[in-house]
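Example complex used in Figure S2.
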Amino acid sequence: MPYSRPPQGLYAPIEYVLGLGGKRIRPVLMLQAYNLYREDVKAILPQAVGLETYHNHTLLHDDLMDNADMRRGNPTVHVKWDANTAILSGDAMLVLAYRLMNTSLHCPAVMEEFVETTMQICEGQQWDMEFETRDDVTVEEYIEMIRLKTSVLLAAALKIGAMLAGAPTSDVDKLYRIGTCMGLAFQLQDDFLDVYGDVNVFGKNIGGDILCNKKTYMLIQAQKKASPEQRGELTRWMGRDDYEPAEKIEAFTRIYDVLHVGKDCQTLIDSYYAEGLSLLSGLSVPADRLATLRQYVCSWIKRDN
Amino acid sequence: MPYSRPPQGLYAPIEYVLGLGGKRIRPVLMLQAYNLYREDVKAILPQAVGLETYHNHTLLHDDLMDNADMRRGNPTVHVKWDANTAILSGDAMLVLAYRLMNTSLHCPAVMEEFVETTMQICEGQQWDMEFETRDDVTVEEYIEMIRLKTSVLLAAALKIGAMLAGAPTSDVDKLYRIGTCMGLAFQLQDDFLDVYGDVNVFGKNIGGDILCNKKTYMLIQAQKKASPEQRGELTRWMGRDDYEPAEKIEAFTRIYDVLHVGKDCQTLIDSYYAEGLSLLSGLSVPADRLATLRQYVCSWIKRDN
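Predicted assembly (610 residues):
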């Protein structure tokens, strides 16, 4: 591996982060898209690893910026080492991602796609940070933020996989849109499950977003539909520092229930989900070849965890 | 420019940093190397700007890691904005650099060269950080560190310029080595001038490296040649927190004088300088075409400021 060379002080944190696991959704999507058209999936392993390396670069720097102590049940790099190590190793992971993406690559269009994607993800992260201090974020702005921060990388995974396989342009574009829809559905599902998920199946604690006043679809939609009284109650809770977590979560959930915010969220999820699946069926690929990819996206979209 | 699009919170710090000026040595070297073989230098402006953008990305993140408040007489990004802005805008500059390098590029070898270079610069920065807490750094290790941290980017500037111009491989390799030699000579010159420079011509204050115990060539070479007594005196000074800056600088300088460390440094500078110039004359280019580049490297190597 490129990070087996010295200095270990630079590469050890990278191996640590990449060793923490995760669902590896992005490389899997890329390989599956490629596999719709070609058998020799091993040919694009460097690009698949590059995508996962890039994704972990964003997690490493996001955790540093969010001051998050844990990631996948282990201490984050700036905790296990220090902030400077997190900055420099994170930079090195970004460089590694481009190197892997460029490996035995004779298709500048793929590099262009990857570069534009990584730029958009920086922009999504910036919007996300700016939204924290704004109280007038619209649903449209929120959807655009999660599209940039989360969806474009899933979309690029499918698109680049197809590009590398030499798929027809119409398929390449469809796959990009499929990734976008699935990414949006996935993130909205995450927002929904923070309120209505089952703690035993859902990885995180329920109500985490509510407690830190995170402007998810649920909260933005609630504020939009709320009566002056309800809006006032939400605002008061968000202003308080001293409260019983359970009480705040209960109060928010009650308002969400009354306003049917959960239903709105599910409707939106289903519409993205449906668009993605219908686009999937529209690919110029024999139905039986589509089975694996369809099954895969269903498995992590319709997850109730 | 790619960074004229929203969010301004991401791009404003980038425009700020790139607007602070600087000698623009790297893009100039790239354009001059290209111009040895071709006239249409405008064709590689994106790559030249990409190189400068990359260089400023390293300055931005290095200043954050070093906790430096000022850069080119202006507050650094983490001071003017905050640390998170410095991290994310710095990441975005790295992405922008790759995008610019990839612009209308049909030569994956150039991207490969750039990616390998940026990887080595991360490694150089890591060595530099590790050397701070080591007291057994050898001259050879130091030279390798400054080669990675400083020289490879100058070398890549010349090499990529020549590659883009379709120069013969032997010239491309010579230009890389020329950049390496000039980079090493330049950094060693910097170490020398910190001790023996004229404060009025040398940008920084004299003795800055001495006061922060920076392991430059001067100190490493002095420790190597020092008698037990002299080594003891250096060590004592480095351990003290309470001292008259002028006294410490004077004490170090006295030891450097006695050990002729300045002379050793100049000898080394001259050897790299001579190697670079003789390689320059060996290029398969008419002598008159070489004049500009020769003049340029001389101007900033033999600078006595």
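Residues 108-305 of chain B form a domain with the Farnesyl Diphosphate Synthase fold (CATH 1.10.600.10). Strands of chain B lie at 70-71, 74-75.
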